[in-house]
Design brief:
Strand content: under 5%
Number of domains: 1
Radius of gyration: 14 Å
Helix content: 55-70%
Structural class: mainly alpha
Distance between the termini: 18 Å
Number of helices: 7
Shape: globular
Length: about 120
């Protein structure tokens, strides 16, 4: 049986789980958070999956009749979340870069669109 989830809520909850104060570089923090080796094929699969899910949510939201301002805001916040998984965030101290891109300023608006694209 297929289980359906709310993509927006999944992304926002992931952001909340990764909103951790740490002195580790992004790659080390994320590898530990996902229990994989940094820079392994599994590591890349997870990173790309997260990025692809944000892109899929953005496309799904654009296919709805939601208010354009809401769509534009959601797109901007999803773009910020994607930056948390880019080369710069992976090489930088997680608390100084990646964490700021997935924090409540960006995850809360993603929670708000939960259910809109269902």
């Amino acid at each position: 049986m297929t289980e359906y989830t709310d993509l927006a809520l999944d992304i926002a909850e992931l952001c909340d789980r990764l909103n951790v104060q740490t002195g580790e570089p992004g790659d080390v923090f994320l590898a530990n958070a996902f229990a994989v080796e940094a820079w392994s094929s599994e590591f890349f699969q997870i990173i790309f999956s997260i990025i692809n899910r944000t892109i899929a949510l953005e496309a799904l939201l654009k296919s709805t009749r939601a208010n354009q301002a809401v769509l534009d805001g959601a797109s901007a916040h999803l773009a910020q979340v994607r930056l948390a998984f880019d080369k710069s965030s992976l090489a930088s101290n997680w608390a100084n870069r990646g964490r700021n891109l997935i924090g409540p300023a960006h995850s809360s608006p993603i929670y708000a669109v939960g259910g809109v694209a269902s």
